[in-house]
Write a structure and sequence with these properties.
The chain is an alpha/beta fold. It folds into three domains: about 325 residues, Alpha-Beta Barrel (TIM Barrel), CATH 3.20.20; about 230 residues, Rossmann fold; about 110 residues, Sandwich (Immunoglobulin-like). The chain contains 21 helices and 23 strands. The strands form seven sheets. A six-stranded mixed sheet has the order 9-14-13-12-10-11, sandwiched between helices. The protein has a four-stranded antiparallel sheet with strand order 18-17-22-23, with no helix packed on it. A three-stranded parallel sheet has the order 3-5-8. The longest helix is centred in the N-terminal third of the chain and has 24 residues. The radius of gyration is 25 Å and the shape is globular.
Length: about 700
Amino acid sequence: MNREQAREKAIQLVNRMTVEEAAGQLRYDAPAIERLGVPAYNWWNEALHGVARGGTATSFPQAIGLAATFDPALVRSLGDVAATEGRAKYNAAAAHGDRDIYKGLTFWSPNVNIFRDPRWGRGHETYGEDPFLTATLGVQYVKGLQGEGETLKAAACAKHFAVHSGPEALRHHFDAEADPKDMNETYLPAFHALVDAGVESVMGAYNRTNGEPCCANTPLMKTLREDWGFEGHFVSDCWAINDFHTGHMVTDSPEASAALALEKGCDLNCGSAYVYMMKAYEKGMVTEEQIRRSAVRLFTCRYMLGLMDSSPYDSIPLEAVECPEHLSKAQKATEEACVLLKNDGLLPLDADKLTTLAVIGPNANSRVALVGNYHGTSSRYVTVLEGLQDALESRTRVLYSEGCHLFKDRVEHLGQPDDRLSEAVAVAERADAVVLVVGLDETLEGEEGDTGNAAASGDKLDLLLPECQRRLMDAVLAVGRPTVIVLMAGSAIDLGEAAEKADAVLLTWYPGARGGRSVADILLGRVSPSGKLPVTFYRNEQLSTMPEFTDYAMKGRTYRYVEEAPLYPFGYGLTYGDCRVAAAKRTEAGVEAEIVNDGGMDTDEVVQVYVQNEGAAHAPRNPRLCAFARVRVPAGGSVKVALDIPAERLKVVDDAGISVDEGTPAFWVGLGQPDARTSELTGHGAIRVE
């Protein structure tokens, strides 16, 4: 049913509840009200890159990998996969009376925060550093999750509203300060786009923004409800309302925190603060009207999902989970997500000429490194080692060495430091080529409380790999065999001299539970890599000149404001073809371009259009992405593509946070940014179009 119909039903139901019953429904673990036929419902579920934490589900690449696809249609189809599997799992669980956490249809995804600083541990949950790319992909994931009918297939959530990107260790008491320009140019656009797309819920962040906690923030709530017309429900991040009196010190008790959050418009509490709602009510700190208002919003969502009666999705069977079609889409996502950072001609590997292949490194046979965080469970995992073994079975001998621990100085507790190093060197010496698989996993970058890294918070202290991995890379590369480094990580990593010495570098992100198969296919040339970086890869030494991690001003951050040439630019990525933009021209709707592939392999490419408002005082320092399209370019052939550019994308944001027409828009069309570093790395520049 539509929102208006659902709201009417919700009002009728909530009016039959006592105040205490209505207040109980504002908790994430809402209890049953048997006398009214209301079943228990747990609102907490996750689907960042496939249904998470609730058992078996199809596993996609981590969200940052999905961003690297630059493929909105694919991202939307993956949202639909998650919704379908969520329904299948909900139907099966509910049939057995199971209404536990991670079993519902309200998915707290996607994360559309801006990955502004490469140290942020949760950055790999996002769609990168660009507001336009983030908004475009976030909207499509929401549409995929929620479906197109009047009944929501699942409910999506835009999080974490609104200025939130670390440091993780400070999030429970930190005040993120952003001026009107940065708010409206960088931090708010993706949320606005998702609200316009009909996202059902918005989650408030842990931190304060400009002085007020995000889950009780007057300006943010006004923007959301009054300016944007948001009609869904607002949920707190988990235990964030407790931070009001334990971290932010804006209240002095749990009931005061609950009252403040409810008054400001937080309908649903993930955590324990709303357990005190009736105490706050009895003290006159909240009104019955406020309690019922939020309960109506929550039951409007439950009716829109068909949870209170029936829905067109009730017949989706459990067999839909990990069905061949879904696994195929996940595999396609991994193929499109991997970014080729360097290739001196080693890739693709020629299986016919490989007698022995060495696969070395702590992530080579790691399941943890496949899945990132907020992940589900797969019925099968395929690591990079296993993918290569399967692909080369009976043709090539594959030798393996772990090489080193992920971050400790030894693998075995009783061993000496570097206890796997000699084995790795010996394996490399016996091989025709080496695949060196290094990187991070969710134990080294992620959410505060979920990781055990040096910062004890989830954030990175620098952009280097752990020392044991650096020693491994040095030792293996010193052997002198043709070597490709496969980097599994969710954020910017500086490999240093190892990247210079290696013949190729392939970035796979966290490629999904069966991602090793796709990685093997790329390494062996069955698929051309075509991913593009959704974040800037900085040199480690650039951290010393970047603003402080706690500084939320955008100056000096991301490709739009960076002043020094990066290691690898936003939008960069090589293929096994040799593509370039041969011609481009303005059209009434935007830009038309011709892409030529002078190489010998068919490949996907991502055409990118950047705009700079020349003469504008308020434009970002560097040209910004305003359109993109993924195209297939045959070897020796060409394709033409038209890209629409609405006038709204050509505006700039002034110091007051207002979008204005300013300057003269100039466009560049290329396969990356119109910067010197991209031209240097690719051998092709972007074409300027007036």
